[in-house]
Amino acid sequence: MIPAPASDATIDNPLANEGPVKALLRLTETAGLLRSTDGRCHARVSVGGRPEIYAIRSAPFRYWLINGYARSCGETPSDWAIRRVLARLEATARFEGGTPSIFIRVGHDGNVNANGNGNSNGSAFYLDLADPGGQAVKIGPDGWSVVANPHINFRRPDGHLPLPMPSREGAIELLRPYVNVIDRDFTLLVVWMAAALRPVGPYPILALYGEQGSTKTTLAKVVRLLIDPQATPTLAQPQNTRDLMATAVNGWLLAYDNISAIPDWLSDGLCILSTARGYAGHASFTGGERRVVHAQRPLILTGIEEFVGRGDLSDRSVFLSLPPIAPSDRRLETEFWASFNRDYPRILGGLLDAVVGGLRELPSVRLTELPRMADFAVFAEAIGRSQGLPAGTVLSNYNDNRQEAAMTQLEDSPLAATLLENGPDLNGWSGTPSKLFDLLTSLAGHKVAASPRWPKSVAWFAIELRRIAPQLRLHGILVNLSRCKNGRIVTISLDP
């Protein structure tokens, strides 16, 4: 005889819910409980014959419990029973579960060095195809191959879309018709995408500039499709650091569209994600607890105006300026995406070939001078050499890109313009910020010094001097601010 469904009064009775709790716990007996290295608790369960990893407090895992219970018992478990089971599982995961690394889209087996390369034992890293079969691409200096059910723990958040099966007949040159960039920038774009497929960075921020209709958003979508397809290809500018970090822990590639200006807090947050410094705070995605979020992510920013203002963010960026498109060269979106989808598997295969070539050449690359984002620069140079470019070509392109961005920023600063103009005469100068402020104000002349952008106090002068110092360094003027027992000292010298 089939028992009647429990009444509301029975459901609210904790003693009567021992049955649902035990049934729910039985469903989880085959689940692997994990506490990831960042302290969050997860469960590895089987979905459609393939393993899936869900955060224990996430909606997908809750629905997995409800679905399993409903299929077995013919009814929905009470919210009380679910909460009790989740608390039990989280406690078990925290104190008894394994502590492996859990990845999104790109991962490694723990034996990958800072360049994203395997060790001498043949270790590799993996790109999750996120297909129903649970396949991934294994990538190493000897080549790439598609493997079923890799031993890497991949998490697939909501909105995570599959990559196509990459083609062995791939060619990265097939990408050219779909990106509106000049030849030099095409090379930088390819090496940036290849670097974004490595499990460790740092990752320069890809800043896309261009007037309306120059296909900035389209380029961002194409890049995302080749690295980390999502249901929402591009996002609006985040409103606070917590939103930025919440997005970072639930996705691999972050793409923000139509940026007009970057406030200081966002500039700091983007720098954190680029170089994997930690962020501590009360975050809703960790259940309200104070956690340190440690994430390193590739980032894309698009905008019409040159929105990167601060030197620390500029130093961590690759800038691509997209030229306008003539009306005769425009294409219908339906035709564009239909053509891209036909070439999609071969372009992805060509990108994987570029990564493999870079890993193969990486041990032989020795640079006499290392720029900012040195690990990226070395890997980019290795990819260029594997593509048949002369040694130093990609590094020269990258340095030119940084210098052009620095000059653009310096053009907006009358203080920087004054230092550039008078740099040779100031070689060897040393003194207090107050004396240098008075000297440069005199050299600039009344008209320049009276402009709103000229510092109006010694304190603001020192702040502006620190801001433009990295860009001045790229143009051979070394400005050093230091402290001594008598106060602050500024020294100016030339780098031949």
What would CATH call the architecture of the largest domain?
3-Layer(aba) Sandwich
Q: Quick check: average pLDDT?
A: 83
CATH H-level homologous superfamily name of the largest domain: P-loop containing nucleotide triphosphate hydrolases
Helix fraction? 40-55%
Description:
The chain is 41% helix and 17% strand. It is α/β, with parallel strands linked by helices and 496 residues long. The protein has four domains: 8-96, no CATH class; 102-154, no CATH class; 172-407, Rossmann fold; 413-494, no CATH class. A four-stranded antiparallel β-sheet has the order 5-6-7-8. Strands 11-14-10-15 form a four-stranded parallel β-sheet, with helices on both faces. A three-stranded antiparallel β-sheet has the order 1-2-3. Helix 10 (333-361) crosses helix 11 and helix 11 (374-386) packs across helix 12 (393-411). The model is unreliable at 1-17, 114-122 and 282-288 (pLDDT under 50).
Keywords:
496 residues; 4-stranded antiparallel beta sheet; 41% helix; 18 strands
Short description:
The chain has 496 residues and is of the alpha/beta class. It contains 16 helices and 18 strands.
